[in-house]
Amino acid sequence: MDMRHLKAFIAVFEARNITAAAQRLCVAQPTLSVTIRQLEDDLGTPLFLRQARGVTVSEQARELYPQACRMVAEAEALRLRFRQGQQRIALALGVEPDIAPAQVEACVRLASEAVAGLQLTLLEGCDGDARLADEAQRCEDELFLPLWEEAFVRVMAIGSQPDGRWVSCPQHASHQRLMGLYGDGEQVAQAASLQLALAMVAAGLGAAWLPQSLVERHPGVYWQPGSGPGLRRRIGLCLTHQALQLPALALLWERAGPGLEGIGFADARQASPLPR
Fold it and tell me: Is CATH 3.30.470.20 correct for 149-232?
């Protein structure tokens, strides 16, 4: 089993069709069929069930797919690391709303340190090769590379005290799990984003539960910590299996690695001083 076998397997798995996969790899269909058969013989298990209009995948193929993607990505990253005269490596990252500037800066710093010769483009929203987002915004078929986690804190305008008035953000993924914190208070305002909710809090409309990174440098507000596992969010990169074949993302994956959190961003856990 070599990289040629794994790339052939990935192409057929994603296309669910040997003819389409052969076109993608620029090889003849019989050659690709032989390559897949060699891999199945080597592993001692069938990976695909051939049908008239394509193939279906076995459970063994589903288990192999993420491992094959990772192995191909790591091999490509290794090749790039030792290649002489390396050219700049392009990477486009989308940044979802409500990611704090400090988190964007930390991600940019991590990417530039992990990928020598990086040519980085930042875009708004879900565009790009991958996107910096809350894990709650991850699509079902995406991988998630966690970079750090942070707490939600109760935020109020300077000079105000808790009075039961709340600013909520119903469209945000965190809304349902924060509902219990409002208690019997009155929801006096609603915002389409966490950033807009922060502006309404600073204007004195009411308090809100917001990620600490958004509020700790914002003038005109102070905040208090909460408690409980539900009052945290994880920020990282959302990307597809196929995107791992891109050199820049392969190097990022190798550097950060699944499960290695807190890279490049300090998760502050202390409450800011309350106003006198």
Answer: no
